[in-house]
Automatic annotation (TrEMBL):
Subunit structure: Homodimer.
Molecular-function GO terms, alphabetical: metal ion binding; tRNA N(6)-L-threonylcarbamoyladenine synthase activity
Record protein name field: N(6)-L-threonylcarbamoyladenine synthase
Classification via CDD domains: ASKHA_NBD_OSGEPL1_QRI7_euk
Top-rank taxon, per record: Eukaryota
Family: Belongs to the KAE1 / TsaD family.
Organism: Gryllus longicercus
Function per UniProt: Required for the formation of a threonylcarbamoyl group on adenosine at position 37 (t(6)A37) in mitochondrial tRNAs that read codons beginning with adenine. Probably involved in the transfer of the threonylcarbamoyl moiety of threonylcarbamoyl-AMP (TC-AMP) to the N6 group of A37. Involved in mitochondrial genome maintenance.
Essential cofactor(s): a divalent metal cation
Organismal lineage: Eukaryota, Metazoa, Ecdysozoa, Arthropoda, Hexapoda
Cellular compartments per GO CC: mitochondrion
Catalytic reactions of this protein: L-threonylcarbamoyladenylate + adenosine(37) in tRNA = N(6)-L-threonylcarbamoyladenosine(37) in tRNA + AMP + H(+)
UniProt remark on cofactor binding: Binds 1 divalent metal cation per subunit.
Amino acid sequence: MLTFLRSVRKCASVCESARKKIGVKHRTAHSRTNQCKILGIETSCDDTGCAIVDDSGNILGEALNSQQEIHLNHGGIVPPVARDLHLKNIEHVVQSALKNANMKLEDVDAIATTVKPGLSLSLLVGMKYGKKLALESQKPFIPIHHMEAHALTIRMVQKVEFPFLVLLISGGHCLLAVARNVDDFLLLGKSRDDAPGEAFDKVARRLKLRNRPNFCNMSGGAAIELAAQQGDPLSLPFPAVMSHHRDCDFSFAGLKNKARRHIIDQEENFGVGEDGIIPGVHDVCASFLLAVAKHLCRRVERAMEYIELKCLLPPSNRVLVVSGGVASNKYIARMLGVVCREMKYKLAIPPPKLCTDNGVMIAWNGVEKWRAGIGIAQNIDEVDIEAKCILGKDISLDVAKEDLKCDWIKEKILLAG
Ligand code: KG4
Ligand code: ZN
């Protein structure tokens, strides 16, 4: 207990001196006045990740253990299985990241760890381990919001200044927000049901894409993207999603169910057996991908109109950042690129490796917080996980209140790229 109290006191005083050194609340990604090396731990879902990143955005060491293969075999993520795998791997992953960096724990300035949102059982493993490291090494602990980390990863690799518009699309989340500062977000809209990655995963599973050798080790989203390249996106029409809701919320359950019904019909019509795949599989993938991409584009367009109306971004510097696992989809990126071109925005997407869950983005978020002097735990004992936690201040009702009828970019233009 005494050691613990001493550690807490030491943490608090290190935080205080860090804050004094930094002085101001907000710095840009490229003011490198406060050197630091932060160790980041990610366990919010099914990947155990760790990295050490410095204030210049250099990845000094990293390690990632993906559970994808195991969960693909279980037909999805089973939380206790994910927890057990995190428990089994976390020590090794953290030690490997330190070894790759040729560093010891005492060489880092702080331990950053995802504590929200995510699967409770998974988050708990990372948080407990991160706290243990912080207490053992007497380093400050920085609790991290997983979605904030996705949103700010781009600033590690590109000069993107606040404020900017961000679309986060992954297996667990779908949201649009204005990032105003390291810890200041305005939430414009989020998914009312599934996330796009989840919809991709379920449709891919229903199509039994895993039974084809070239898709068997891929995530559902990546498999659909690859299969779609050989299909006709206009072959299976999907209805426009939420066209009567003039807001920035998303919904993917309707698209997923329509795809599911079509697959069942086709299986019956063609007498496809238990492990068989329907003949028009590529067309289904291409049409489903187009429907998802179009829905994302429409919501982004409305967000841009709302931003214009409320002057939320300076006209001279309008950037759309896209991140999360689904952001590695080239087809979706191309269509969002068209929206950006037409609406006079720059499009910024981190490299695919940094779009999916990893320890680097957590370490980088720790760097951002460290430099800004915010979010460093004063009392490590009071930090807890939060399975559900929105990003920033929810202004989605205000977006809906504006009832913005957009002058949509024509589908022909979106498709032409
Ligand atoms: O961000 P992430 O690694 O984990 C979550 O926080 O959810 O995202 C994983 C999701 C999965 O649903 C996967 O199917 C999807 O990202 N994904 C893709 C692609 N690669 C991964 N979706 C569409 N196209 C891709 N190329
Ligand atoms: Zn994620």
